[in-house]
Amino acid sequence: IRSLGEMPGAMQCCRRCITGRSMNTLLLQLIAPMQSWGVQSLYGHRDSGLEPSKSGVVGLLCAALGRDRSESVSDLAALRMGVRVDREGKLRKDFQKAEPLNRFGQMAPDRKVTIGDRYYLADAAFLVGLEGGPALLDSLVQALLHPVYALFLGRKSFPPAAPILLPDSLYAHTPLEQALRTCGPIVRDAPVRRRVLIEDPL
Known about the structure:
Elements: E1 2-7, E2 24-35, E3 41-42, E4 45-46, H1 54-65, H2 74-77, E5 80-87, E6 90-98, E7 114-132, H3 134-145, E8 165-171, H4 176-182, E9 194-198
Antiparallel strand pairs: 1-9, 2-7, 2-8, 3-4, 5-7, 5-9, 6-7
């Protein structure tokens, strides 16, 4: 992931547009009172990045598609991703104690109590772009319209506060940078200068 820094307006186009490939871009809006995009976890500690992670977005798509954990995600991982931050989230922390219980609601004697900090972003709004082939992106649109499993933003207790698909989410024959530049603000209080991150193509 490469940061393009802050850019005026909706966004200036990247250093180049991708040519020679028939690629579409699918735009997703991730808006919620709370969302968490963990990068690494250690024991009871759960961190969160300041923007959606690639693995987190792939997990969201797998839930929509109904893919089992044992199935390959290589096609989804191959999608090129970009994030436009329309509203920076405020990093917050909860101190949590998890007590494993058995089916009778009693403390399980062979399990340990987990204590740790859980970080999350409050009031963030992200525009996520996924660049890839038309057939795969079309299937993702249908899956997001009719998801197999409930969709959440990083944790099961963090459902989206707005539809993930925009009225015009699919940009045909449009590279990632151009789609993020073209789409208007997804929240009313989006600043004039917005932070953008783009995944470099392999």
